[in-house]
Amino acid sequence: MYKLSVETSFSAAHFLNDYEGPCARMHGHNWKIQVTVVSDQLDNSGMVIDFKDLKDLAWQVAGRFDHQIINKVSPFDRINPTAEHLSKYFFHEIGKLLPAHVTMDTIRLWETDNYLLEYNADDA
Question: The domain that contains 7 carries what CATH number?
Answer without folding.
Answer: 3.30.479.10
